[in-house]
UniProtKB/TrEMBL annotation:
GO biological process, one term: tRNA modification
Name of the top EC class for this enzyme: transferase
Function noted in UniProt: Adds a GMP to the 5'-end of tRNA(His) after transcription and RNase P cleavage.
Ranges where the Thg1 C-terminal domain occurs: 85-216
The family this protein is said to belong to: Belongs to the tRNA(His) guanylyltransferase family.
Residue ranges annotated for the tRNAHis guanylyltransferase catalytic domain, each copy included: 1-82
Source species: Fibroporia radiculosa
UniProtKB keywords: GTP-binding, Magnesium, Metal-binding, Nucleotide-binding, Nucleotidyltransferase, Transferase, tRNA processing
Protein name (database record): tRNA(His) guanylyltransferase
EC number of the protein: 2.7.7.79
Lineage per the UniProt record: Eukaryota, Fungi, Dikarya, Basidiomycota, Agaricomycotina
Domain of life: Eukaryota
GO-annotated molecular function: GTP binding; magnesium ion binding; tRNA guanylyltransferase activity
Entry-linked InterPro entries: Thg1_C_dom, tRNAHis_GuaTrfase_cat, tRNAHis_GuaTrfase_Thg1, tRNAHis_GuaTrfase_Thg1_sf
Length: 228
């Protein structure tokens, strides 16, 4: 899932953030995007189809011994939010849902795989329980601290374009670049410099997969450009 989302973000530079959990991914486009003249149907169908085809294409990379038995599919929807507040509220909602679902699934399968309950019995055991009860049940019955579970499962996956230091992105010009650095006209000079600046700007960003909190303020305060 993370790999398919990265493929989408590599193709569409106007996507500045993605969040994934379970069988879903959410993509945030820059407010100023003019992709496909902002045609909703065009954006929605191309993003969904690229995500699906990338998922199928790279399946063998992650599951070499488990061939696909039927073609997977993903649906999609596109929503325009009025302000940065609603955008943050949306992603906070998705991450809260990640926690709720993962906590339930963790104790559910502990009851089945370690506690000897059937799936029906496990559902009945958990019916009406609150978060604190589930935490206590994991600890007292199975000696498990929920907070020790990897953050990937508790918080989902956050994909962003991280800015990296200029020093790490600067490389020595190639021989071909050296030839191009001595153009015969001012116009060629401007074009060459513009191309180099564009390449450097792109080189100073990398696509990162994080497993961190996006409900609080810290994530957004450190990356104000996401909501500009």
């Amino acid at each position: 899932m993370d790999n398919a989302a990265q493929a989408v973000m590599h193709e569409y530079k106007d996507i500045c953030l993605a969040f994934g959990e379970s069988d879903e991914f959410s993509f945030l486009f820059r407010k100023s995007t003019a992709l496909y003249n902002r045609r909703q149907a065009k954006i929605l169908t191309t993003i969904t189809s690229l995500f699906t085809s990338s998922y199928v294409l790279h399946w063998p990379q992650f599951f070499p011994d488990t061939p696909l038995k039927y073609p997977p599919s993903f649906d999609g929807r596109l929503v325009v939010y009025p302000s940065a507040k609603e955008v943050r509220d949306y992603f906070a909602w998705r991450q809260a849902d990640t926690h709720i679902n993962n906590l339930y699934n963790t104790i559910f399968w502990a009851l089945v795989q370690q506690g000897g309950e059937t799936t029906a019995q496990a559902h009945a055991t958990l019916r009406g329980t609150v978060s604190g009860t589930k935490h206590e049940m994991l600890h007292s019955r199975f000696g498990m601290n929920y907070n020790s579970i990897p953050t990937r499962y508790r918080k989902g996956s956050v994909l962003i374009r991280e800015r990296i230091s200029a020093e790490s992105s600067i490389s020595q010009p190639s021989e071909a670049e050296g030839d191009a650095a001595a153009p015969s006209s001012g116009e060629q000079t401007a074009r060459t410099l513009g191309q180099r600046a564009e390449k450097k700007s792109e080189a100073r960003k990398r696509l990162s997969v994080l497993h961190c909190d996006i409900i609080g303020d810290e994530f957004w305060q450190q990356r104000p450009h996401l909501l500009e």
